[in-house]
Write a structure and sequence with these properties.
By secondary structure, this protein is of the alpha/beta class. It is 19% helix and 27% strand. It contains four helices and nine strands; from the N terminus they run βββαβαββββαβα. A nine-stranded mixed beta sheet has the order 3-1-2-4-5-6-7-8-9. Helix 1 crosses helix 2. It is globular, with a radius of gyration of 17 Å.
């Protein structure tokens, strides 16, 4: 299988339970909830995405893509982590790529909207639900809900089989007000943990 990849780069994980860890980010091109073009944002199922995932480079097989991830890793074999994201990684991520990355010593994490199946063998699954997009992934390590979203109550997810539940304030012009609202929700509902975008605070990619 060939893969269309928007970018590969090393940085610190800026979101969720693994914030602060060095990782290689493998960002796939494409998403099933928005095509990435501003002209179509208003009619997309997900309208608040802050990530560029349009276009990129094509890798013809899992081995060559895994080698490209390794080439971006800044250290030795210890503590290798790759975070696979997008766009929506569920459109392209498959078992051969997961296995190729694991053979190179990487722990494989994925950040997905949860609307598409994911392959076996992942070490960390983070799902970020979007309003109006039914989940097919209902268990994992981390459920990270961008908050607030109209018509999306955090309580509806609490019965799902996730180890951790995070509210991440929605970015944009209302970020400060959204942060206050998310903080108050967490204080009233201790199942939830406040998540911040550390990479934006630090000015990282």
């Amino acid at each position: 299988m060939a893969y269309l990849v928007h970018e590969i780069f090393a940085s610190l994980q800026g979101e969720g339970l693994q914030s602060g860890r060095v990782a290689v980010f493998l960002r796939f091109a494409g998403c099933n909830l928005w095509n990435g073009h501003e002209a179509d944002r208003a009619t997309a199922r997900c309208r608040f995405c802050d990530t560029d995932f349009v276009g990129g480079s094509r890798y013809l097989d899992a081995g060559s893509l895994a080698d490209a991830v390794l080439a971006s890793w800044p250290g030795g074999r210890e503590n290798r982590l790759v975070v696979i994201t997008g766009g929506e990684p569920g459109l392209q991520l498959d078992a051969p790529l997961v296995m190729a990355l694991r053979r190179l010593g990487f722990r494989v994490a994925v950040e997905s909207n949860g609307t598409l199946p994911l392959p076996e063998g992942l070490d960390w699954i983070c799902i970020s639900p979007k309003a109006g997009a039914p989940l097919v992934i209902t268990r994992g390590d981390e459920l990270k809900l961008v908050y607030p979203q109209p018509d999306l109550d955090p309580a509806v997810f609490e019965s799902l089989d996730f180890a951790h539940f995070l509210l991440q304030p929605m970015d944009g012009a209302a970020r400060e007000a959204n942060t206050v609202q998310a903080l108050r929700y967490c204080l009233d509902h201790p199942r939830w943990r406040l998540g911040v975008q550390l990479h934006k605070i630090l000015g990282l990619r």
